[in-house]
Amino acid sequence: MENNSSLFRKKTVTQILSDAHQADQASGGLKKILGVRDLVSLGIAAIVGAGIFSTIGLASFNGGPAVSLLFVFTAVACVFTALSYAQFASTVPVSGSAYTYAYVAFGELFAWIIGWALILEYAVSNMVVAISWSRYFVTMLAGFGVVLPGWLTIDPGSAAEAFAKLQTGEVLTTAEQAAALAYQTAPLLGDLRIIFDLPAGLITVLVTALVYIGIKESRTASNIMVVLKIGVVLLVIFAGAFYVKPENWTPFAPNGVGGVLSGVAAVFFAFIGFDSISTTAEECKNPQRDLPRAMIYCLLICTVLYVLITLVLTGMVNYKELNVADPLAFVFERIGLDFMAGVISVSAVIAITSALLVYQLGQPRIWMTMSRDGLLWKKFATIHPKYQTPSFATIITGIVVAVPALFFKMDFFVDLTSVGTFFAFILVCGGVLYLDHTGISAQSKFRVPYVNGKYIIGVFFVAAFAYTLYNGHLLEAVADKPLLVVFWLTWAVLSVLGYRHRFSLLPVMGILTNLYLMTELGASNWLIFVIWLVIGLVIYFAYGYRKSKLA
Question: Are 357 and 344 in contact (CB under 8 A)?
Answer without folding.
Answer: no
